[in-house]
Amino acid sequence: MTTSPTPSSPREAYVLGGNRIPFGKVGGAYARSSNQDMLTAALDGLVARYGLQGERLGEIVGGAVLKHSKDFNLVRESALGTALDPRTPAFDLQQACATGLEAVITVSNKIRLGQIESAIAGGVDSTSDAPVAVSPGLRRALLTAARARDLPTRLKAFAKVRPADLAPDAPRTDEPRTGLSMGEHQAVTTARWGITREAQDEIALRSHHNLAASYERGFQDDLVTPYRGLVRDQILRPDTSAEKLGKLSPVFGKRLDHMPTMTAGNSTPLSDGASAVLLGSADWAAARNLPLLARVVDAETAAVDFVHGHEGLLMAPVHAVARLLTRQGLTLGDLDLVEIHEAFASVVLTTQAAWADDDYCRTELGLPGALGTIDPAKVNVNGSSLAAGHPFAATGGRIVAQTAKQLAELQAASPAAGPFRALVSICAAGGLGVAAILESVPTTEGDPR
Amino acid sequence: MTDRYTHLVNTGFTATLAKRLGLPQPAILRRFSAGDPLVPGPVLVLGPDTHDGSDSDAVAQHLLGLDLDVHRSPSTGTARWGAVVLVLTEIERVEDLSEHVLAAGSVLKQTARGARVVTLVREPQPDDAPALAAARQAVDGFTRSLAKELRGGATANGLVLAGGAAAGGEGVLAPLRWFLSARSAFVDGQLLTVGPADVPAQDDARPLEGRVAVVTGAARGIGAAIARTLARDGAAVVCVDVPAAGEHLAKVANEVRGTALQLDITADDAGERIVAHARARHGRLDVVVHNAGITRDKLLANMDAARWDSVLAVNTAAQLRINDVLLASDLFRDAPRIVSLASTSGIAGNRGQTNYGASKAGVIGMVRATSPLLADVGGTANAVAPGFIETEMTARIPFATREVARRLNSLQQGGQPVDVAEAVAFLGSPGAGAVSGQVLRVCGQNLVGA
């Protein structure tokens, strides 16, 4: 169906490969691993897979959402611990759950501009080793004491500390401006779009089955490197069923007027993990015999006004995708694969419901009519966050790497067809949403192998 | 994995004590270190030298060309001998042996640590005169017995020249150099048959330069040592192991600056995926080392189908399937090498290992039958049969059993993974082109299985 490639600029950026560690449960296999440990492992696995030992890459860009203040140079420090040339520069980037995808976009833009030839985009998060801060009262006392020149002043600083100040300040995932958790926000959106419990459980079931099947057929063999004894994602339940999912009690939306539908089974649990994606120019890849899995075509970031309740917190990708497709002159029908990050099963459903709604698309997206519908068989074909888990900043890398590989497989299976096109859509805290289009690389001279 | 006993009987007071008590004193073996000389002292080349261009002369000339201190008579040397090469290819009667073997015997008390004795003889043929066949076969028993007499980490091995192989050709000389070198540390009492194949001269420092090697089971132990040794010898190494071993595999791949390929070798498309990876990433494929293997020990009376089938599937059937793909591939055409890991259990048998013994004997049958299929493209297929090797696996054997197992060989110690790796690297090298369909034991001349 997609016969001509979208217009390309003189220089292109390609996804060449990826690697991640299996994602762990909070307090699970990686309970004692730091963000730096996990990101280093993901990078080193990538280096090993593609023989990049001693390479000086153009740049490594990535980040973590839950980050210790000492990790101000997390990515650079991780890079120094790998087999890469220590002269490889790096910087940290942070955009909540879109960190990983934003890192891919950032480095691919640099490659397209000719500023760098190669890069790794990555992300990592640990909810097990989350930063725990001291209270503002204790922090002020500690800093004042540190500046004091004599003992009395130092003691005086601590005299102001109250017992309540001694309680640690754990990180929160609640939205700072509304005080509501992400789940509660999405429960409102889910109810607004009339998404059923059954439909959400069906998404969750498909995610587990698709991811399990991808492991079984060896698809993940060159995408995942085991870490600390964990070989597959700890959350993955290959044998889950509609009955088992149906028995779980709702956890979000219990205070709403509607029947609550969001359970632990159709919401993504907190997790630990890291991912890395290798990108480069065609020349750089050719010089190293690396395959061009997919071209990074274009990307768009959107934000919505969720604070005043006008739009759902996790609905920004709906807007980003509409603008991205319009700019590229594409429709939903031009897509062969669609990856919608499963923060919650209902995100996959509300996103598609919005695109199918004529009235919404006219008034909210400024389109002449509904954006359209997507064949469910094209959505999250190798499973997504409900089955793999969602270590916030690591999710983008996971999705981009496995989607690029899937595109390359589609292309290899139909050399005469293509290019095949994929859409990646990721929602993030703060009412943010990032979308990107990847496209397979048709082989001009026979089988690339 | 450490052999504390060998350490103790070689150091300080405990060494003196062991000597007084008459305890066995296994030597610290001479192992390869870049820059070390080929042999630890002068080389004595013995053998009939009745005419110009005799085999012994050809061998001596070659060794002289390596800047070695070569002598043709035992009386001339003063330093401790580094090696004795007995070129017996031109003997015709058992009576011819006496002069040369007694000359060798006269220097054995003045040999350096890690010295080498290597015999060269022609393969006895069914149509040989009985006296000739007896003389040639005698060298076999002589070599094996001498190996059991040597001390101080010295070894005795033999090359059996088959099908008109020339003693002065690289096909014979490269294996000779390997036996003389520190790389053959744990190979003792072995006779290796060398055919007449034409072999180009090789640089022993980097024999695998420009070659691409695949090692299965590379994440740990012997497989990791093989990957390191092949990389040291110049090869680009594709490290293969099951996805579950990926973390260690990545470490090994990064260490050897190779690539990691997570793959279950029992998968139907394992061979295709190996060839595709080698083609896409390295553009060629020259050496495939079938090292991955499993044990599921049980007496046959208690054996279940899962234990039997899985061992045969991984250790034998997977290698056969991958070899089929290699043999059909246009990538595996430039003097390719297949090296399979067998085991002394597949030769002598081992109680509780009917499945493992069968699988490893199967591997030996496989390489013998695969060898002629590769002859057209200058390829070889061989097996390496390790004896007791100090690995994580053998470290789990109960203490007393382990102590007995590791002492029951002429070197009175277990081998190191690198010793197996050296044998694999040798058989994978261009210089071993005249060695095919053979089983090289790396067992310190284990007393079982001869």
UniProtKB/TrEMBL annotation, chain A:
<keyword id="KW-0808">Transferase</keyword>
<dbReference type="InterPro" id="IPR016039">
    <property type="entry name" value="Thiolase-like"/>
</dbReference>
<dbReference type="InterPro" id="IPR020610">
    <property type="entry name" value="Thiolase_AS"/>
</dbReference>
<dbReference type="InterPro" id="IPR050521">
    <property type="entry name" value="3-ketoacyl-CoA_Thiolase"/>
</dbReference>
<dbReference type="InterPro" id="IPR002155">
    <property type="entry name" value="Thiolase"/>
</dbReference>
<feature type="domain" description="Thiolase C-terminal">
    <location>
        <begin position="292"/>
        <end position="439"/>
    </location>
</feature>
<dbReference type="InterPro" id="IPR020617">
    <property type="entry name" value="Thiolase_C"/>
</dbReference>
<keyword id="KW-0012">Acyltransferase</keyword>
<protein>
    <submittedName>
        <fullName>Acetyl-CoA C-acetyltransferase</fullName>
        <ecNumber>2.3.1.9</ecNumber>
    </submittedName>
</protein>
<dbReference type="Pfam" id="PF02803">
    <property type="entry name" value="Thiolase_C"/>
</dbReference>
<feature type="domain" description="Thiolase N-terminal">
    <location>
        <begin position="14"/>
        <end position="282"/>
    </location>
</feature>
<comment type="similarity">
    <text>Belongs to the thiolase-like superfamily. Thiolase family.</text>
</comment>
<dbReference type="GO" id="GO:0003985">
    <property type="term" value="F:acetyl-CoA C-acetyltransferase activity"/>
</dbReference>
<dbReference type="InterPro" id="IPR020616">
    <property type="entry name" value="Thiolase_N"/>
</dbReference>
<dbReference type="Pfam" id="PF00108">
    <property type="entry name" value="Thiolase_N"/>
</dbReference>
UniProtKB/TrEMBL annotation, chain B:
<dbReference type="Pfam" id="PF13561">
    <property type="entry name" value="adh_short_C2"/>
</dbReference>
<dbReference type="InterPro" id="IPR002347">
    <property type="entry name" value="SDR_fam"/>
</dbReference>
<dbReference type="InterPro" id="IPR036291">
    <property type="entry name" value="NAD(P)-bd_dom_sf"/>
</dbReference>
<feature type="domain" description="Ketoreductase">
    <location>
        <begin position="211"/>
        <end position="387"/>
    </location>
</feature>
<comment type="similarity">
    <text>Belongs to the short-chain dehydrogenases/reductases (SDR) family.</text>
</comment>
<protein>
    <submittedName>
        <fullName>3-oxoacyl-ACP reductase</fullName>
    </submittedName>
</protein>
<dbReference type="InterPro" id="IPR020904">
    <property type="entry name" value="Sc_DH/Rdtase_CS"/>
</dbReference>
<dbReference type="InterPro" id="IPR050259">
    <property type="entry name" value="SDR"/>
</dbReference>
<dbReference type="InterPro" id="IPR057326">
    <property type="entry name" value="KR_dom"/>
</dbReference>
